[in-house]
Amino acid sequence: MNVTVVVLFLAIVLLTLVITYFAAKRTQTTGDFYTAGGELTGWQNGIAIAGDYLSAASFLGIAGSIALFGFDGFFYSIGFLIAYLVVLFLVAEPLRNLGKYTLADMINSRFDAKKVRGAAALSTITIVTFYMIAQLVGAGALIQLLFGIDYWIAVLIVGVMMTVYVLFGGMIATSWVQITKAILLMAGMVIISFLVLLKFNFNLSTMFTEVKTVTSHGADYLKPGLQYTQPLGTISLMLALVLGTSGLPHILMRFFTVNNAKTARSSVITATWTIGIFYVLTLFLGFGAAAFVGDEKILAANPGGNMAAPLLAQALGGDILFAFISAVAFATILAVVAGLVLSGASAFAHDLYGQIIKKGKASDKQQMLAARYASLAVSVFAILLALFAQSLNVAFLVSLAFCIAASANLPVILYTVYWKRFNTAGAVTAMLTGLFSALILVSLSPSVFSPIEGAALFVGDPIFPLDNPALISVPLGFLGGYIGTKFSKEADMERYAEVKVRANTGYSE
Amino acid sequence: MRNENQQMEGHDEKKPDYVKVVNSNQFKKLMHNKKKFIVPLTVFFMIFYFLLPILTSYTTFLNKPAFGDISWVWLFAFAQFIMTWVLCTIYVKKAATFDKQADQIIEDQLKKGGTTK
User: Fold this and answer.
1) Which of residues 37-66 of B touch A (CB under 8 A)?
2) Which of A112, A192, A210, A440 pairs with A413 at a CA distance of 20 to 30 A?
3) Range of B48's domain?
4) Contact check, Cβ <8 Å, A231/B58
5) Which residues partner with A450 through β-bridges?
């Protein structure tokens, strides 16, 4: 561990604490706590969405995948980006117009049913749990690698930091931590990409020719099929990526931090540009790492390829750039987990406690207290899980979270806004079918059962062939909603008229 | 199935008559315009997106070189980025016209005409 790393690491801790201090002073009401009072501007929220979305898995994982597997690594970049078209075209504006703090609020704008809210809170909590374990396990492993400290201490550091941001500064602190992180991350990406391009004299053709010869894969490196050999598996993964984003609770929650649909739209645009540029740059990081670090060295540092980007920084810019990129990776983790804690806490404190137990009659003070207790509880729970989950595969957990989001949440969101006949029974069955089919299929998949010992959780033959079950579970979620709706006679056309008008005009009484 | 207005007027007197708004020509026109724009483009980008994994999984013709060592599969991948940004820009422009229509509906109907007292 060198001195520069420690200094930059502490600088980030200090900067985020200063942000939290000022945010805490401005966090007066429950609205401030969950949605920063709905007062963020379009570009602020757009950058914060990018900061919330671009996790360490994107930054380190994709760079590593491209470095090791060439084109196949780039699949993730494409899926994660196109997902924003789904958000922009179908989800963001109606969501902003109908919801208040959570996804359940939006769905309940049509139903007012405890069981719908309960189902929505359950799927939110499940997604957040998987995503959070993935981030914390990844964070622990990464900080262990970068700073040479024990896994459990690393998890505790990240855990305590995220708890402090959310507990004291709520959404205001979380947003500004995410904005700061996004700017640092983009700066880091641009610097490394620039240095990589400089090495190739800014000639893309030279770069492709070079990477074709340097890796152990030879010419195959530039062709798809090195990592994903199962056609249906690839398509299923791509489906989870493109539809999952629109169902991720921590991303959806960000749309409540702006005051109208127009601002929500402009934040998606800012986010899409930022995220798009980021994912184009992952290519330069991946290729750069393949050319200037080499797969042997990348694999030696971490079998998952997660060290490709920091090692590339070291090869191109020495210890100072390495320290900067490591600090950026740390900030990245902090910003993402803070967003997750907040969305998990909102499901517990707002949906389960405030709306179901207290029936929406809790005072603002009670709600605020509940939100803070829930944040603390979610954090502690996540830290404990992460301490025991060290051996789980991070990429698998992330893709599982996307799959559940696409299977359980997206069908209900779309049906709520666009399907006239949709009803309470349909909402509950859609959520539960999507959620449980994803969970059950994954537990029978090659990610959980492998004939080779140590390759997965259990030894045995997988019953279900795909690692990511989205290809089956997403249609099941939609089908569940359809059948559930048809089996129930309930239909409230007046209520749908209201939802339709409000979703499309942004009118509220 | 339709309880008409009793239920609505029951809980909030100031509530606009949303059913009336939904059935108004002004609102129908907005929905028609939105549908005409959003549905075809959504279908288009989903097909364009899934063509990539489908073609790379079942065919190999994208591996042919396009420029030097850059093959068609890479160009198709970059085209996905370009498509995203282009569609974003088109969406913003188009949505501005929807905003106008929506504001008009709020002015004409929700604030006065559609309101039942």
Assistant:
1) 38, 41-42, 45-46, 49-50, 52-54, 56-58, 60, 62-63
2) A440
3) 31-113
4) yes
5) A459
Taking a contact as any Cβ pair under 8 Å apart, which residues of chain B between 75 and 94 contact chain A? 77-78, 80-81, 84-85, 87-88, 91-92
Q: B102 touching A, CB under 8 A?
A: yes
Contact A89 B69 (CB under 8 A): no
A89:B41 CB<8 A: yes
Q: Is the pLDDT of residue B12 over 60?
A: no
Contacts of A488 in chain B (CB under 8 A): none
Helix boundaries (H) for A215-307: 231-244, 249-254, 261-292, 295-301
State both tokens at A212. Answer: 């074709």
Of A269, A279, A507, the CB nearest to B110: A507
pLDDT, residue A187, reads: 96
CA atoms within 13 A on the CB side of A408: 29
Judge whether B79 lies within some domain: yes
Residue A109 to chain B, least CA–CA distance (Å): 14
- Say how many domains are in chain B: 1
Residue B100, in any domain of the structure: yes
Q: Are A123 and A409 in contact (CB under 8 A)?
A: yes
Convert the pLDDT of each residue in A413-434 to its tens digit: 999 999 999 999 999 999 999 9
Pull the structure tokens for residue B74.
């890479």
Q: What angle do CA A333, B81, B33 make, to 5 degrees?
A: 110
Give the pLDDT of residue A74.
93
Of A75, A79, A208, the CB nearest to B68: A208
DSSP per-residue letters across A350-386? IIIIIIIISTT---HHHHHHHHHHHHHHHHHHHHHHH
Residue A29 placed within a domain = yes
Average pLDDT over residues A266-283: 96
For residues A173-188, give the mean pLDDT. 95
B9 pLDDT band (50/70/90 cuts)? very low
Amino acid at B93: K
Average pLDDT over residues A266-295: 95
SS3 A88: helix
> Tokens for A18?
């200063």
Which pLDDT value is given to residue A72? Answer: 92
Half-sphere exposure of A61 (CA within 13 A, CB side): 23
Query: Considering the domain boundaries, does residue B14 fall inside one?
Result: no
CATH number at A351 reads 1.20.1730.10
Residue B83 has pLDDT above 80, yes or no: yes
Residues 6+ positions from A384 with CB-CB distance below 8 Å? none
**A124 located within any domain:** no
B18 contacts chain A (CB < 8 A): yes
A240 touches chain B (CB under 8 A): no
In a domain, B73, yes or no: yes
**pLDDT of B7:** 41
Task: Give the range with max mean pLDDT: A39-43, A110-114, A361-365.
Answer: A39-43
Q: What is the pLDDT of residues B38-75, one digit of tens each?
A: 999 999 999 999 999 999 999 989 989 888 889 999 99
The alpha carbon of residue B30 is apart from the nearest alpha carbon of chain A, in Å, by 9
**Beta-carbon separation of A89 and B42 below 8 A:** yes
